[in-house]
Amino acid sequence: MTATKGLEGIVATTSSVSSIVDGVLTYRGYNIDDLAEHASFEEVAYLLWFGKLPTKAELSSLLSDLSDYASIPEALVSQIKLYPKDLNTMAALRSAVSALALYDESANDMSREANVKKTIKLQAQLPTIVAAIARIREGKEPIAPLKNVSIAHNFLYMLTGKEPAEIAVKALDKALVLHADHELNASTFAARVTVATLSDIYSGVTSAIGALKGPLHGGANEAVMVMLSEINGKDDVDRYIQNKLDNKVKIMGFGHRVYKNGDPRAKHLQKMSYELGQMNGDTTLYDMSVRIEELVVSQKGLKPNVDFYSASVYTMLGIARDLFTPIFAISRVSGWTAHILEQYEDNRLIRPRAEYTGPVHQKYVAISSRI
Ligand SMILES: CC(=O)SCCNC(=O)CCNC(=O)[C@H](O)C(C)(C)COP(=O)(O)OP(=O)(O)OC[C@H]1O[C@@H](n2cnc3c(N)ncnc32)[C@H](O)[C@@H]1OP(=O)(O)O
Ligand SMILES: O=C([O-])CC(=O)C(=O)O
């Protein structure tokens, strides 16, 4: 038995949810460029869950379910109020989603029907939970979700209590489309491993949130913003990046396990970053990002991934840095749950082997004789 570090190149499952072939990302066979240009996030979520684009009637029924399920239990709000104010938002989200299972009578009902309902509930409730965490940690009361608006619209509204600008809703909606699914990324794999034991959907999503939190995965978007805020304007980019590269420090938002010629989602976020900068009359973050890209591409041959330009996009939308990764979760829960449903459909326990590298033939030594 020989291990492959990080399971690189190992095909661990079959899936019909999304694919990456020759650098092209598709959801259920639809190219991400096409979806980013034309589809709403809710249409994409429907596509991921049910394998086809919704008709008008199907979409309107989904929107109505999402609206009906968007509130969260009062007891959960009370729990969030007990979290420390200087919380880590992803840790808070992980805890809150785990707790959500306690308030769902059907949490352990493993029928397809119950799991589809929980899928839609999780999608509806995650934005409400994230907005509640964001407000409560600032000492504010959470804001109840609006009825009959998109997830992007509702989330921005629940953060501030103000009607969001149409351009902000459109930008966030597109970002949600771009983040919705990504084949067997680490958090999706974590979700599939968890539910393959026939554990419940909340356990799967809680595992996934834990995996997404790390800076080598979803946490990189926040780390990109930390980097941008440490750089003193465009003229300071070269000094800062050179110093990191000379010291072999990774530049967050660059590189990818699967894409070696660039992440197809990055160009959409780059364009949004440019457009939002133009609209706000300040392209500093965009300009800095472009210069960072030039340096990292020329010196390391590494291209930006989905996390790189999303940092400047979210900042220009007025969103706090520590909400970037939770926003990733708001989108990716659509993909996680699509994979969980797929796993349940044709399940087998996921249990690979490890190549043992420790000592052998050890003899037990009584504690009195140990040194
Ligand atoms: C949504 C997402 O999850 S997208 C990914 C988000 N993560 C990041 O942006 C974090 C920064 N990037 C990385 O850490 C990596 O590129 C990963 C984790 C995304 C992919 O990692 P892997 O396929 O395991 O590549 P690995 O980390 O082994 O890197 C291979 C080589 O490239 C280098 N490298 C990889 N990424 C970077 C980077 N961002 N900056 C500088 N060097 C890098 C490594 O140092 C390593 O060099 P070495 O061979 O000289 O030691
Ligand atoms: O696929 C990966 O390894 C990481 C990624 O880009 C994602 O999850 O969107």
From TrEMBL:
SUPFAM superfamilies, A to Z: Citrate synthase
PROSITE patterns: CITRATE_SYNTHASE (PS00480)
Alphabetically ordered keywords of this record: Acyltransferase, Transferase, Tricarboxylic acid cycle
UniProt GO MF annotations: citrate synthase activity
Reactions catalysed, as given in the entry: oxaloacetate + acetyl-CoA + H2O = citrate + CoA + H(+)
One Pfam assignment: Citrate_synt
Family matches, as InterPro entries: 2-MeCitrate/Citrate_synth_II, Citrate_synth-like_lrg_a-sub, Citrate_synth-like_sm_a-sub, Citrate_synthase, Citrate_synthase_AS, Citrate_synthase_bac-typ, Citrate_synthase_sf
Pathway(s): Carbohydrate metabolism; tricarboxylic acid cycle
Protein family membership: Belongs to the citrate synthase family.
Protein name: Citrate synthase
Organism: Paenibacillus sediminis
